[in-house]
Amino acid sequence: MKLQVGDKQFNIKTALKKYFGFSEFRGLQEPVINSVLNKENTFVIMPTGGGKSLCYQLPALVQPGTAIVVSPLIALMKNQVDAIRGISNNDGIAHVLNSSLSKTQIQNVKDDITSGITKLLYVAPESLTKEDNVQFLRTVTISFMAIDEAHCISEWGHDFRPEYRNLKSIVARIGDDIPIIGLTATATPKVQEDILKNLNITSATTYKASFNRPNLYYEVRPKTAQVDRDIISFVKENSGKSGIVYCLSRKRVEELAQVLQVNGVNALPYHAGLDNKQRVYNQDSFLKEDCDVIVATIAFGMGIDKPDVRFVIHHDIPKSIESYYQETGRAGRDGGEGHCLAFYAYKDIEKLEKFMAGKPLAEQEVGYALLQEMVAYAETSMSRRKFILHYFGEEFDEVNGDGAEMDDNTRNPKPKVEAQNEVGMLLNLVKETNEQYKIKELIHIMAGQETTILVSHSIRSNPLFGLGSSHEIPYWKALLTQLLVAGYLIKEIETYGVIKLSKMGLDFLAKPCSFLMTENHVYDDSSPGITPIKTGNFDVKLQKMLIQLRKDVADKFEVPPYAVFQEASIEDMLVKYPITIEELKNIHGVGEGKANKFGKPFVELIAKYTEENGIIRPEDLIIKSTGANSALKLFIIQNIDRKLPLQDIADAKGMDLPAFLEQLETIVFSGTKVNIQYAIDELFDEDQQEELHEYFMESDDDDIQAAVEEFDGDYEDDDLRVFRIKFISEVAN
């Protein structure tokens, strides 16, 4: 296609070939570029890896003057400047203007712009607020302004930057009729609206590519204390492939990278706390394939275009669906395999909520709403792809759509049940309560459970209160999520998630019809530290034999079966077939103490079974420790021997009590004895101790939630965990 730019006519495909070496445009690139060259305000929503950068780079190169590109990340700017300089004989073709430059360097940049050499000027929003820069830019020809990562403008987005809010007024100061192109890789309908309004380009031509990445496989697994083992197992199963593991904290990045290294994985850490030289080295090692796996905070990946990343693992659940989408989007950019695996435990969500506590109320509300969307994604049993695409305002056919079978829920579907009556009840509740409640309140009204807000609204007097009490809260939570995705309900973002009826919802109330739903997954982490690596179906025959043997051993020692080996330890034996005491020690939740005390009949049974049935045993997955855990174990045991309060021991290691108890559980459940009677005496009187001992001795399992319910909330979760530690230590070790 030929276009007139200034006094020249040219073909944009010829320009594409000349500058970038491509013969064809991808997706929406061509119409977007035409729009920019026609001096139109343009808004581009294009997923990560879709080729957004070209949409402003090519128009900048072929037009008179300089294009200003606003970007929030210095590393991203540098990468792009280097890339553009690579296609030109003159380094002055692209520059960065920021506070790190010396006066001489700033002057060189300005000279190149004035002389017409510079086609792309990358700036952070802060640089545009400086009066010197504004005055200078007013004197030169600006071809257009590109706002990259435009979602940063919206407080409803996942990466809000207050400095982005001033861009509208800055553009007006530099020039009256400067065309604007806004670009983002992730934006919900609300964020899109916010971007257009704040940039004052509501009449802009909008180009939105599909957010569907059909080659990506989405999976969520429960996260337990053995998450390191699970990650190592996954990485080793994908040996030689490039992957990224995301963690929320720098400390965890360092620890996990170290654990991977000592277990033979070529891994390096990446976070903002590393010195710049080390950070650049680690990033380059990954890009050059000198290392297979990068363990990183979210600081890694912005602008990193490595097409053959084969897996992205989330050790911690991100703060929003947008973040998750962006981070998983770094997998499989070449259209090949891309496995997106997230480990989920609700306690991680609770930690993130605590981090928001000191922020302004409006920011807390937004942050909480984004987090709850993430919870809904992790716990849902419906198509994960459909869930994600619905979030971004895109419909998806979960039966025939491209990539329809590429998630764990679709591959292993839960049974669907008819919920026509319940849908009617829920929609009617929304209508009769004047569409004023959020998900949480609606669920509690249905289940007949009062909250502070509901008490203040005298909800108990409403005849609909408790109408759905025959179902538990998780049921109503699942149904409400599925009604939102199906389009029967709408979530109002402006009011922080108040639920409204859609036209479909009203039509259903007028004429009810069938609605099939699936119940959510329940990720129960009440069994500490034990998640076996599942490599296929279990040997049911051997499973029955091991469970019977466990009962026989338990009867002999006069202890409950779970005190011998927990369920998940049995499952891990079914995967690894240990035939020696040494091998048994590498089973989840089995340490030296338990292996020596209970192990002999188990390894003898498994050895005989494998021989008789010709079973080829897998090589044992032995997870080597960095030594940090053994040092922590020694510290805990020494301080318990000194009878220090448990909270004081936790504080000394900068841990909260639940995290400390998790460590102590791992120690005790693997067979080490500890004497915490002094702590028990502080918490419980003699009668209570007797009552709890009797309960755990007679119970079928040691589930804490079951114990809480049994005692009707008389005991706190953490207190029960402390008693369980004492019980297992005395009875089983």
Give the helices and strands, then pairings.
Blueprint: E1 2-5, E2 8-11, H1 12-20, H2 29-37, E3 42-45, H3 52-62, E4 66-70, H4 74-85, E5 94-97, H5 103-114, E6 120-123, H6 125-128, H7 131-137, E7 142-147, H8 167-174, E8 180-184, H9 189-198, E9 205-208, E10 216-222, H10 227-237, E11 242-246, H11 250-262, E12 267-270, H12 276-287, E13 293-296, E14 309-314, H13 321-328, E15 338-344, H14 346-355, H15 361-379, H16 384-391, H17 408-411, E16 417-418, H18 420-432, H19 439-447, H20 452-456, H21 473-486, E17 489-492, E18 498-501, H22 503-510, E19 516-517, H23 540-557, H24 561-564, H25 567-576, H26 581-584, H27 592-612, H28 628-641, H29 646-652, H30 657-669, H31 677-683, H32 686-698, H33 704-710, H34 717-731
Helix pairs in contact: 2-3, 14-15, 19-21, 23-27, 30-34, 31-34, 32-34
Task: Supply database-style keywords.
single chain; 733 residues; alpha/beta; Rossmann fold; Arc Repressor Mutant, subunit A; 5 domains; 7-stranded parallel β-sheet; 6-stranded parallel β-sheet; 34 helices; 12% strand; globular
Summarize the structure.
With 733 residues, this protein is an alpha/beta fold. It is built from 34 helices and 19 strands.
Question: What can you tell me about this protein's structure?
Answer:
The structure is a single chain. With 733 residues, this protein is α/β, with parallel strands linked by helices. It has five domains: 2-208, 3-Layer(aba) Sandwich (Rossmann fold); 216-379 and 386-393, P-loop containing nucleotide triphosphate hydrolases (Rossmann fold); 417-517, Orthogonal Bundle (Arc Repressor Mutant, subunit A), CATH 1.10.10.10; 540-612, Orthogonal Bundle (DNA polymerase, domain 1), CATH 1.10.150; 628-731, ATP-dependent DNA helicase RecQ (Arc Repressor Mutant, subunit A, Orthogonal Bundle), CATH 1.10.10.1390. It contains 34 helices and 19 strands. The strands form five sheets. A seven-stranded parallel beta sheet has the order 5-6-4-7-8-3-9, sandwiched between helices. It has a six-stranded parallel beta sheet with strand order 10-15-14-11-13-12, sandwiched between helices. It starts with a strand and ends with a helix. Residues 525-537 have low confidence and may be disordered.
